[in-house]
UniProtKB/TrEMBL annotation:
Coiled coil: none annotated. PANTHER family: HDOD DOMAIN-CONTAINING PROTEIN, PTHR33525. Residues 101-292 form the HDOD domain. Residues 15-51 are annotated as: Disordered. PROSITE patterns: HDOD (PS51833). It comes from Aquincola agrisoli. This is HDOD domain-containing protein.
């Protein structure tokens, strides 16, 4: 795998002159100056523990998502504080409002049911896939990518041949991509609209990395793939909530706001994942992340996801640096 740790230690190139924020990991509270809290008597936002790993990728990653100017080194404004309190309220409710996700959570397990049936004969799988034109197109597209094309000397045009080329794992991934991509539709407003295509590209990279890391830890690779592909729904929920907020927030954001936003997006994912009846493994992951955050989470799948997330972020922000790092077995994640 790519050595994300070596890239991080060598220093990620700063994006468009962005300077590292002071006091990374600090949380907004009633002890902050009045200019940052919106004045005396303003309710504080919730405290979250600082991640055990550096959070210095969060600010440039949000700037990349929104294609925005560098973040401001000014205190949080009233709208930003109100936006954080909105996320805190969502985390405190029993369930995330379905309208904040492009596809209602109840539909996801139903559509993913086919993924669990990996013992179906080829003819049965072909018949089911052929009933969905979008899924058929994705299976054919995936079978003709460089990774799978080496198994066939010629282009794959037949569905049964494509399924045979992909194998069970490839078909599962194709179905997952078709089922989960609507989670990243950017129809909620300007913030979610700008972020959606980039979050999907980031999620695809993260899913592949998380699948490999999960397998190293004795977890089914497909569980890791699903976790990586779904993880950015935390960002989706946050951006859609901000788009629906009266008055809203807009980029460029303050650096202190972005630090706090990063701490909440993982818990938003955890809240959604723990409620979706997709698998016991993903349910445990969601609860773990909801309770502790991602990087302090305790499960092996959470550790794989945290590493994959950082690796994918580096690949999006500094692809040349990620590709140029030499392989070093000492930097491989622990099994």
């Amino acid at each position: 795998m790519r050595n994300w740790l070596a890239v991080l230690l060598s220093g990620l190139p700063r994006r468009r002159g962005t300077r590292p924020a002071k006091g990374q990991g600090e949380v907004a509270s009633t002890n902050t100056p009045a200019a940052a809290t919106g004045g005396p008597g303003t309710p504080s936002v919730s405290r979250f523990p600082t991640p055990s790993l550096p959070a210095d990728l969060g600010t440039p990653f949000v700037e990349w998502q929104q294609d925005s100017a560098p973040s401001r080194s000014t205190p949080m404004g009233p709208r930003e504080l109100r936006a954080l309190r909105l996320l805190d309220e969502l985390l405190a409710t029993d369930k995330t409002p379905a309208e904040l996700l492009p596809r209602t959570p109840a539909v996801v397990p139903q559509l993913l049911n086919l993924l669990r049936q990996d013992d179906l004969p080829l003819a049965a799988v072909s018949e089911r896939v052929s009933k969905d034109i979008v899924l058929t197109a994705e299976v054919l597209r995936l079978a003709n990518t460089a990774h799978y094309r080496q198994r066939s000397q010629h282009g794959v045009t037949d569905l049964a041949q494509a399924i045979g080329t992909l194998g069970s794992d490839g078909v599962q991934r194709a179905i997952a991509r078709v089922v989960l991509k609507p989670l990243y539709e950017g129809r909620g407003g300007p913030l979610s609209g700008r972020a959606a295509p980039r979050l999907w590209a980031h999620g695809e990279h993260k899913a592949a990395a998380c699948a490999a890391l999960a397998a190293q830890r004795g977890i089914a690779a497909f569980e890791g793939y699903l976790a990586g592909l779904m993880h950015n729904t935390g960002w989706t929920i946050a951006w859609r909530a901000f788009d629906r907020m009266d008055g809203g927030v807009s980029a460029p954001f303050s650096q202190s706001f972005l630090q706090q936003l990063v701490l909440r997006k993982d818990r938003l994912f955890g809240k959604a994942a723990s409620a979706w009846d997709i698998s016991a493994e993903l349910g445990r992951l969601g609860q773990d992340v909801l309770d502790h955050g991602l990087e302090p989470a305790r499960s092996p799948l959470a550790a794989a996801l945290a590493t994959a997330d950082r690796e994918a972020t580096i690949a999006m922000l500094a692809p040349a640096a990620a590709d140029d790092v030499d392989d070093d077995p000492r930097l491989q994640p622990a099994a």
